[in-house]
From TrEMBL:
Protein name, UniProt field: PCI domain-containing protein
Pfam families: PCI, Rpn3_C, TPR_PSMD3_N
Membrane is among the record's keywords: no
Family classification: Belongs to the proteasome subunit S3 family.
Biased composition range(s): Basic and acidic residues: 477-502
Gene Ontology CC terms, in alphabetical order: proteasome complex
Signal sequence bounds: none
Domain PCI: 242-442
Keyword entries, A-Z: Proteasome
Residue span of region Disordered: 1-23, 473-509
Database matches in InterPro entries: CSN3, PCI_dom, PSMD3_C, TPR_PSMD3_N
């Protein structure tokens, strides 16, 4: 596509007269058409058109060139405006820019009204996207700050869509330069302003940006306080709702609320679009860890999803170690992929899995043996291993008395705690130093099948309710309810019309 655009621009002076459609495919012409869409949406106050213009711009961003952006700024903004003077300085100059602008002009000129705030904000957004794509982060930060200052003086519903995108790129460029802490106060002020202006799209966007800002610096308590105090409203953007569920799942995981965290993470992964592969990978990574902490073993199909197999390989080996209950294998996997777990910020959660590995191994032992000595339990669980552990892991080990010099005493305390928590059905004979397992009963004599079946029904009902809420209805459909008599008359007229048309078709045949 970029080669076609360059060819049309450079060969425009020598093109034939009958080759008129070629200039219409230029990037500048497309930008002008997007500006006309924004103008129509602004004058008719239709937010859908503004959203469509943003989608068209995202699809066009790979073809943006400096000459196209500069020419569009001259076309869209009045020559005396401050925005034109401010943005023109940020766009780099190219040789032959004037010639390209003149030759790219179509035969039928598009005209827009100058002075519309939506067009001005769109120019800020276009320049900001162009600077970020060209890795000019200092100029992008200047452009983002100027756009935020301009947005503070506007309160128009047709600007909300453009403003939400500007907020996202404003935070993104500071994240790229590792200066997120500097804009936290600005984001809080913008969220307060969006709340006062009843800008719900801006509220959910800024709330996610603030949560991301706090979680970037591991400030989970502040993130939870903000989330709990923020006003509640119905989500307007599926992407923003998915991000919110992901951040909520991370907060719940750190707060040891694994059941709620699992539900939020799985819902975020399910609702995310298929093209957002990186986001879905992160959701699955955290969901796998949470399910392991809950004592569940994820299915193999989770790790074999299309495009995710390589990224989820470390977590697959970790799951296998937890499933087997081999403490030595768990340590080797944790050391082998320590850099990956640190980059994903899941290493502290993996430290918590140590106790689950020991409990899983103990459960397997209790099923396999009707009676076994504590010394054999310590040997099978490898509690006397001399392999060093990480600093955070050693702290947990000390709390669990796993680094004691007497592995038999450690095994006894672990077995006692597992029996007390109901993880295994056994008794502990302290005098003889062994564990006696009870006979396994029929699982269908308990309430476990009913609980599992009830959870599946609740999941299906929840999905059905969300699907019903997501349905779109025509405007004023709640006011124009059709009565039963009118409905019968309408159906009767439709049947008569269909019968009449069928008879006409038979006659023609």
């Amino acid at each position: 596509m970029p080669q076609d655009v360059g060819m049309n621009d450079s060969q425009a002076p020598t093109a034939a007269v009958g080759d008129a459609p070629a200039p219409a495919q230029s990037t500048l012409q497309r930008l002008k058409e997007i500006a006309s869409v924004i103008e129509a949406g602004s004058l008719s106050k239709e937010v859908r058109r503004i959203s469509r213009a943003v989608r068209l711009t995202v699809a066009l961003r790979r073809r943006l060139a400096a000459r196209d952006v500069a020419a569009f700024l001259t076309f869209a903004l009045p020559s005396s405006s401050d925005a034109l003077a401010r943005l023109s300085v940020l766009v780099p100059k190219e040789d032959g820019c004037e010639m390209d602008v003149d030759t790219a002009a179509p035969t039928a000129q598009l005209l827009i009204k100058h002075g519309l705030p939506e067009i001005e904000i769109y120019c800020y957004l276009l320049v900001l996207i162009f600077l970020i794509d060209n890795k000019k982060y200092d100029e992008a930060k200047t452009c983002a700050s100027a756009s935020i200052a301009r947005l503070k003086s506007l309160n128009r519903r047709t600007v909300d869509v453009l403003a939400s995108r500007l907020y996202s790129y404003y935070s993104y460029v500071h994240e790229l330069t590792n200066t997120l802490a500097e804009i936290r106060g600005t984001l809080l002020a913008l969220h307060r302003m969006a709340t006062l202006h009843h800008d719900e799209l801006g509220q959910e966007t800024l709330l996610n940006l603030l949560l991301r800002n706090y979680l970037h610096y591991n400030l989970y308590d502040q993130a939870e306080k903000l989330r709990s105090k923020a006003p509640r409203f119905e989500a307007h953007s599926n992407q923003q709702f998915c991000r919110y569920l992901f951040y909520l799942g991370k907060i719940r995981t750190i707060q040891l609320e694994y059941t709620d965290a699992k539900e939020s993470l799985l819902q975020a992964a399910r609702k995310a679009p298929s093209t957002a592969r990186g986001f879905r990978i992160q959701c699955n990574k955290w969901a796998i860890i949470v399910r392991l902490l809950l004592g569940e073993i994820p299915e193999r199909t989770v790790f074999m999803q299309k495009g995710m197999k390589a990224a989820l390989t470390p977590y697959f080996e970790l799951t296998n170690a937890v499933r087997v209950g081999d403490l030595e294998l768990f340590r080797s996997v944790a050391d082998k992929f320590s850099s990956t777990f640190s980059a994903d910020r899941t290493r502290n959660l993996i430290v918590r899995l140590r106790h689950n590995v020991i409990r899983t191994g103990l459960r397997n032992i209790s099923i396999s043996y009707s009676r076994i000595s504590l010394a054999d339990i310590a040997k099978k669980l490898r509690l006397d291993s001399e392999n060093p552990v990480a600093d955070a892991e050693s702290i947990v080990a000390k709390k669990l008395r796993l680094d004691s010099e007497n592995p038999v005493a450690d095994a006894e305390s672990i077995v006692a705690k597992a029996i007390r928590d109901g993880a295994i059905d056994a008794t502990l004979d302290h005098a003889n130093g062994w564990m006696v397992s009870k006979e396994t009963g029929d699982v269908y004599s308990t309430n476990e099948p009913q609980i599992a079946f009830n959870s599946r029904i609740a999941f299906c009902l929840n999905m059905h309710n969300e699907a019903v809420k997501a349905l779109r209805f025509p405007p004023n459909s709640h006011k124009e309810k059709e009565s039963a008599e009118k409905r019968r008359e309408r159906l009767q007229q439709e049947e008569e019309l269909a019968k009449h048309m069928a008879e006409e078709d038979d006659d023609d045949f």
